[in-house]
Specification:
Elements: H1 12-24, H2 37-44, H3 48-60, E1 64-66, E2 72-74, E3 95-96, H4 111-123, H5 135-147, E4 155-158, H6 161-172, E5 178-183, H7 187-195, E6 199-206, E7 209-210, H8 212-220, E8 225-229, H9 242-253, E9 259-263, E10 289-295, H10 297-300, E11 307-311, H11 313-325, H12 332-344, H13 349-369, E12 381-385, H14 389-398, E13 401-402, E14 404-405, E15 416-420, H15 429-440
Parallel strand pairs: 3-13, 5-6, 5-8, 8-9, 9-10
Antiparallel strand pairs: 1-2, 4-11, 6-7, 10-11, 12-15, 14-15
Helix pairs in contact: 1-3, 2-3, 4-12, 6-11, 8-9, 13-15, 14-15
Length: 450
């Protein structure tokens, strides 16, 4: 509730800043209703248009949401409190299965690739006015996309998947637009959308990816964009199958004006083949606006903040245009390092995928032996539906395991826990499964689908 909070300011920016301070300071709690425009305008002695402008700023920043006649209220999770801060401390001696990181032992050595990139920079330094992207990296990316049946399109290099998604959404959509997203889904994306003034529309999914009927309903209701994780979906590990991809393409074909974004961050560390949604009949794009994004974070390390995206001319052109106005380009040292890793580390990719697969399957099989349903056909994570997240998390910590709370990844979907198995020895899976079974009780847990 608003309690004794005092609003202040005579300009829209000052009013908005004051409300943001109230939220970050804990004086305006999530869900609190803000005063109607005219009421606050009278209280502050300003024109109602000034308050309207302040509320618009806050809405665009993801601090508040507006529901017509119901007025404006502080968002349940304002952008000032990102979801990745919702985590449990890791006590001494406990195993941290919450961080989502790849196994350090499975990441390639960086020194040789960095040395090659540095030598290239010594020989031919990159200066102002030169092309933004390294030709060698673009060649590898173009060949990779072509091999996977992605339609031909221009390429853009950005600082990771989320950076690319942000640039696409910021240049293609307007505040207030709806975006269809997977639920459960990527918590950072759930934070980004309201920060851009966009409204997420949850789409249920199973192990094969988003369900066609909920996606069709979201698009029919006016969603102007859809974001799909091709494989290694976070947090459920879902991966598109050929049948599901075909069904989703049929849904998308009925809405050719929708913006389709495919996040293939699992490229290079999963063993499931990529199933393109963007490719329609005769190899033509299924929608007019589309993009496919591949990043280096999971395969080569999170500190390699780099992604390569392809898409239609307008979408990629706007990404590059916005980039020129800001960062300009991604460091060529970084680009050349990733290109060298891509060239020299292609063979071990199957070994990395096999290792992660063995760890996922070991845990899922151990959980199944206790009657616990779990999900994770690809990637680094296993999703376990539960009835009581908080109770399960606390009890697991007592047994030496720290999981990620499902609330970080949910909009409307049922509760669950995310377990990162990237560094979980398959020999430890039975003990973890037994502890989780004890925590969830004799019934095993919640067998509802993700």
């Amino acid at each position: 509730m608003l309690g004794e909070y005092t609003f202040k300011g005579s300009r829209a920016s000052d009013i908005a800043a004051g409300i943001e301070e109230g939220v970050s300071g804990g004086h305006l709690l999530p869900g609190s209703a803000l005063p109607p425009l005219r009421e606050l305008a009278e209280q502050l002695g300003v024109n109602p248009n000034t308050v309207a402008a302040a509320y618009r700023l806050l809405r665009d920043r993801g601090v508040i949401e507006t529901a017509g006649r119901k007025g404006s209220r502080i968002r349940p999770r304002p952008a000032l409190a990102p979801r990745d801060q919702i985590r449990l401390p890791v006590p001494p001696g406990a195993r941290d299965l919450s961080d989502g990181n790849p196994d350090r032992a499975l990441l390639p050595a960086l020194a040789p690739a960095l040395a090659v990139a540095a030598a290239a920079a010594d020989h031919n330094p990159v200066l102002y006015g030169q092309p933004a992207a390294d030709p060698g990296l673009l060649g590898l990316a173009r060949a990779s996309y072509r091999a996977d049946g992605v339609p031909e399109g221009p390429l853009a290099v950005a600082s990771g998947s989320l950076d690319t998604i942000e640039r696409i959404l910021a240049t293609q959509l307007r505040p207030g637009d709806q975006v269809a997203v997977e639920d459960p889904g990527w918590g950072s994306l759930f934070d980004l959308l309201p920060a851009l003034g966009l409204r997420p529309v949850p789409v249920r999914l199973d192990d094969e990816g988003p369900l066609p009927d909920p996606l069709a309903a979201a698009l029919a209701a006016g969603a102007r964009a859809v974001i799909v994780t091709s494989r290694a979906q976070n947090p459920t590990g879902a991966a598109l199958t050929p049948a599901r991809a075909g069904a989703l393409r049929t849904v998308l074909a009925a809405h050719p004006g929708v913006l389709l974004i495919e996040d293939d961050h699992g490229h290079g560390m999963v063993d499931q083949p990529y199933q393109p949604l963007c490719r329609g009949p005769q190899g033509l794009p299924v929608t007019a606006r589309w993009a496919v994004i591949r990043s280096a974070a999971k395969a080569y390390g999170p500190d390699l903040r780099l992604s390569v995206a392809t898409g239609d001319v307008d979408t990629i052109g706007r990404v590059l245009g916005r980039q020129r106005l800001g960062a300009g380009w991604v460091s060529h040292l970084l680009q050349r390092t990733v290109a060298e890793l891509w060239r020299t580390d292609a063979a071990p990719a199957s070994e990395v995928a096999a290792a992660y697969g063995a760890r996922r399957r070991a845990l899922i099989a151990a959980l199944a032996a206790h009657g616990i349903a779990a999900h994770g056909v690809s990637g680094l994570n296993v999703w376990v539906p539960v009835q009581d997240e908080s109770g399960a998390l606390a009890a697991l910590v007592q047994r030496g395991w720290v999981a990620a709370p499902g609330t970080r990844y949910r909009l409307e979907s049922p509760p669950g826990l995310r377990l990162t198995v990237a560094s979980l020895d398959p020999a430890d899976a039975p003990r973890l499964a037994a502890d989780l079974a004890a925590v969830l009780g004799a019934g095993g847990g919640d067998s509802r689908p993700a």
